[in-house]
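Below sits my pick:
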Amino acid sequence: MVATTRTVSLQGAVGHVIDVQVDLGPGLIQTAMVGRPDMAINEARERCRAAIDNSGFHWPVTRRTTVLLSPADLPKRGTHFDLAIAVAVLAASEARFPGGALEGVVLIGELSLDGRIRCVPGVLPMVMAAAARGIGRVVVPEPQAGEAALVEGVEVYGVRSLRQAHALLMGEEIPEAPPVEPPTGNPLLSWRGQSRLEEVDLLDVLGMADARYALEVAAAGGHHLLLTGPKGAGKTTLAERIPTILPDLDAQESLELTAIQSLCGGLVPGAPVLTRPPFRAPHHTASRAGILGGGTGRVHPGEVSRAHHGVLFLDEFPLLPGDIIEALRQPLESGEITIARGDEDATYPAGGMLVLACNPCPCGEYSPLTRDHRCICTEVRRREYRRKISGPIADRIDITRFVEPVPAHERNDPFGRPESSADVLVRVAEARRRQRVRYADDDWRLNAHAPGPALRTAYPLDPDATRALDTEVYAGSLTRRGATRVHRVAWSVADLRGVDRPGCAELDTALRLRTARPLDLATLAGRA
């Protein structure tokens, strides 16, 4: 007797629908797992046997049980196969499910020894993969039903136990069962001040008109940003306020970010939808797996992926290990990161803004714009420190700004009225609306993601600006990659100014932002 159920296997952020086939036949009495299962799936034999027996059913103890996870050449990992395996065993042995009950349904959930179902990470991307392959029904742990219901066109059934799943598929009355515990990845502790970043505002930042405009352009086009300057100049203060000038995520962006958070097992039941751009700020001592992704067992998304559609802030950037700095080349260029390990490779999105901050020297006192700086570092130490930001990395940064401490006359100016985040957000949202309209038929949403060939052919600068940009390349001031990034920034400047096509004025501003040269007063005063 052969029975088949379905579940989903995740390889990075990509889901594969898996047929779980169970055969009961003559031979040596044992349970064989085939199809490249990992240790967690091999242990499912004992979990499923106990869950079936303790739920009032019977494990086939007189037959040879073979469980095949098909396709057999794909590695499988995770405990969420339990429910599909147990139901397939019941279907092959004693349960007589109505015709078509197991067709077009995906089963997801881990089983306890007493037959209760436990939550598992990655439910949302699993359901998204099932829906993409035309499967219209899914059975998931009850607390994660809301998460699964984010996918349109799919009927979601939340169950608490194996008996409830069996009754649901049989078309019988659902029996009572204890509630399912929430995912173990939910935060259990809170502390005073953990929501500090929710209260920050650009209104708190006095002066710094040059750096504030750079933040506005970066937020409008999703550009990578490097802030450098002496310690205490306000680099972290500026970076922490970037999310306050970013608009809410649209439906597609929200679904993508929520799927990544689901893979990490950190979604809170009852409120799983993420609508605000994330802000991630790992310490410079974080591990390679923590920032880029990886880990033991299943490959997990790193901070660079958890900041998708948001901001990844790396303070004290030169203090990061050199291999992590160089590994950031891929997400800086392509907006995704691929982790290859043994027989497994996983690709995760990494399309957020990367904001780097660093001091100009190890002691943090050096200032090339101040004659009487207090730096005690030798020129050799300063060069070694700056060398950590290699040429290929620097070439992938769109905007570079040197942040100076606010002069006393700006800090104490009674007539100085800095704009609030809400005021800047209006302009950023309008600039992004213009980009959505312009790129409506393309595969990207923001200027920072537009490919170079498409920019040159479909979205060029005006002829005079194009000649000026080519002159910078021929003179050796810019690489071809750098010219593409200046082109993108020029479009963001044009979108903020309401200009239909970037000209020489927008190109000049983009070049100044790229090369850390001061902006002219007209740009800072007009904002348009």
